Amino acid sequence: MSKIKRWAEKLEALTSTSTSDPEGYLGHPVNAYKLVKRMNTDWQELERIVLQDPADGFINNLTVQKQYFPSEEDEAGAAKALMRLQDTYKLDPDSISKGKLPGVKHSAFLTAEDCFDMGKIAYNDGDYYHTVLWMQQALKQIDEGEDTDISKSEVLDYLSYSVFQLGDLFRAIELTRRLIALDPTHERAGGNLHYFEALLEKEQHEGKVNKTAFEEPKTVSGIYERPPDYLPEREVYEALCRGEGVKMTNRRQKRLHCRYQDGNRNPRLLLAPIKEEDEWDSPHIVRHYDVLSHEEIETIKELAKPKLARASIINSVTGIQEPAMYRVSKSAWLEEEDSAVIVRVNQRIEDITGLTAKTAELLQIANYGVGGQYEPHFDFSRRPFDSNLRTDGNRVATYLAYMSDVPAGGATVFPDFGAAIWPKKGTAVFWYNLFRSGEGDYRTRHAACPVLVGSKWVANKWFHERGQEFIRPCGLTEVD
Length: 480
Prior knowledge:
The protein is α+β, with helices and mostly antiparallel strands. The chain has helices at about 1-20, 20-25, 30-50, 55-65, 70-90, 95, 110-125, 130-145, 150-165, 170-180, 185-205, 235-240, 250-255, 265-270, 295-305, 340-355, 390; strands at about 260, 275-280, 285-290, 310, 315, 320, 325-330, 330-335, 365-370, 375, 395-400, 410, 410-415, 420, 430, 445-450, 450-455, 455-465.
């Protein structure tokens, strides 16, 4: 009973803080991860305790409520989101553990046990790079005297094997010896040490190991190099997300202007023209201001929330829609029958762009939570025989409206030409995905950077080729 009371007191303290500002509280990625972890892992421990009690009514109620709680998959997803932020924004585990992030309104911290669990999730996923980072952080906090149920030997067990997997044989032997010193009866450690030492002796005999490597471990500033992955422009993309490497020169900036735009004398915009600002010259990207009011945004969000589902992508090989780790968000499609607000917003977008929406897609609403992202991608289809294109043609243009400010992260970046566009509530950006010839403009490959702090809401409108023939006629060359 005392354990249950302690758990309830901790939960009550958390609830009073989180319910006063749920969006701000869960906008801190550490708080989001801890809440998911608490409702999954910690709840299982509470359930184990109360199941020893014969109170059937309480147990039945517990079982019913559990179906609404996060799963192990959700906890792993939240942990991987933290690791994604760690990589993209070059955050060290100590800063994340102490909750030292830009733009946060609520304090947060990770315990040694939280860090250990982060490391275990990475380990189970075969991600030894992050396993080492988080096990080292757990060990650091234990060494600093933090009160925890996690033992040093448990941490060293994972850490020693993970550094071995990263190819650091000398450090693996050092850590394994430290583990055996703490727990001489640890059977796996004894076997690992024998194997590591035999392997080292063999490699030294064959001349493959530099004998001075023990003093000079294969690390950069004490941190192992991050393994390469499937994305060729990873470094450029992540640098842009941090606001680095933006190729906005003085010469280019002089070609960017602001203006009032009336949609080629559209009657609905003559008395209230839209404020338009150039974000980039080539390809031409513009931002429109005050395209959505606060009231419209709130209505759209409320309409979308019941329909939100994990966003999917179209497999370029099979043409089948499926979820993917490189697109982490929830999305919903809103029809004009849903509300007069949707009718009004669709008409406004059509007026501003001058394009016909008869062949456009429905208004898509997307929400990016903690670590939410969409890695570099094209909005237009590159599959020449895509059946979806036969009727309406390819996606000729993208209209992307920002429905929230984002305290940190969440930029829209274009790695090919080095542009970064930051979310501003009520504004929208517009660009063409295709040249006038109908050929894809491969420079428009873009990405939604991971949300570091806060929650990002956007609305997308994709226009298709059919119906635009006289509005945007072909040019004289393939790349006009």
